[in-house]
Design a protein that fits this description.
By secondary structure, this protein is an alpha+beta fold. It is built from ten helices and 13 strands. It has a single domain (6-309), classed as Oxidoreductase, molybdopterin-binding domain (Sulfite Oxidase, Chain A, domain 2), CATH 3.90.420.10.
């Protein structure tokens, strides 16, 4: 991770995106020069990430889950990403993901449901009210962000496809297109990427399918055209670029669990008391900040979700 000192941070990085966009031309002074020198290898990437041409979205603001924390700057959200389908470093996805074709987009929904089909994303979103929700996202590598996601509750879609009584879990897959997703040309993971939730986790009102951030459609490096957001779990659970949703009576084997079962469990709840085998999870660094902060149990959503795991040994079910 690129760690910036306070003196390296320009004013564009500590203001909301709307203000930042209007001030981009102004910030060419000393602070901007120093920042460019410190990050010269990523300067072209930042230009790509900043120059957003994504479609504006119509949405309402959901105040039920509002958190009183400063938003992570748009530039950081869109230029520092985990998306192994486009490279294993944090900077490559903002460049390499631009080759991905995201329209038209279909999502295959099958398994233990009464209405299996291949659904056009436009049809899924038709008459669907989009909401902006400000959520924390905590990555297992000890960094975090606060993002105004735009989407809708996953349970809305679940109800539409009518799962039957055998549906205990929901499995998600991204697509496999090695020519566009060049990271898939390497066997870093078994492709396509797979994640899963228990049905009660999937139905929880905090769990959303996001199609935008900061008032616009999702950038490709952030999981366009549609991704999962489960804010009380580590970021790798929030699968990007969803291509298939399957309802099953068996617990899905997640990609990271398959690749490194001793490090990445199925539940992946944010728990500062359970260390990753190679580092502690007790502290985190918010993107755009220099100092670390304490990691919160369930990423700060314990009041809403702790009851889902009552009686479970969270060191065993990590």
């Amino acid at each position: 991770m690129l760690i910036k000192k306070p003196s390296d941070i320009s004013s564009s990085e500590i203001t909301p995106y709307e203000v930042y966009q209007s001030r981009r031309r102004f910030i060419k002074g000393t602070a901007g020069i120093l920042l460019a020198a410190a990050t010269s290898s990523a300067s072209s990437l930042f230009t790509t990430a900043d120059a957003s041409t994504n479609k504006k979205l119509i949405y309402s603001k959901d105040q039920r889950f509002k958190i009183d924390e400063e938003l992570t700057p748009y530039k950081d959200v869109t230029s520092y990403n985990n998306f192994y389908e486009f490279g294993t470093d944090k900077r490559s996805p903002a460049i390499e993901a631009q080759r991905l074709i995201t329209s038209p987009w279909d999502i295959r929904i099958d398994g233990e449901v009464n209405k299996p089909a291949s659904y056009h994303l436009e049809d899924i979103l038709k008459n669907q009210v989009l909401e902006e929700r400000i959520y924390r996202l905590r990555c297992v590598e000890r960094w975090s962000m606060v993002v105004p996601w735009i989407g809708f509750p996953l349970r809305d879609l679940i109800k539409r496809v009518e799962p039957n009584s055998k549906a205990k879990y929901v499995e998600f897959k991204t697509l496999r297109r090695p020519k566009e997703m060049i990271g898939q040309q390497r066997r870093v993971l078994e492709w396509p990427y797979v994640e899963g939730l228990r049905m009660d986790e999937a139905m929880h009102p905090l769990t959303i399918l996001a199609v935008g951030l900061y008032g616009e459609e999702l950038p490709k490096q952030n999981g366009a055209p549609i991704r999962l957001i489960v804010p009380w779990k580590y970021g790798f659970k929030s699968i990007k670029t969803i291509d298939q949703i399957r309802f099953t009576d068996q617990q899905p084997v997640s990609s990271w669990t398959k690749a490194a079962p001793s490090e990445y469990g199925f539940y992946a709840n944010v728990n500062p008391q359970v260390a990753h085998p190679r580092w502690s999870q007790k502290r985190e660094r918010r993107l755009g900040e220099f100092l670390k902060r304490k990691t919160l149990m369930f990423n700060g959503y314990a009041d809403q979700v702790a009851s889902l795991y009552a009686g479970m040994d969270l060191r065993k079910y990590y």
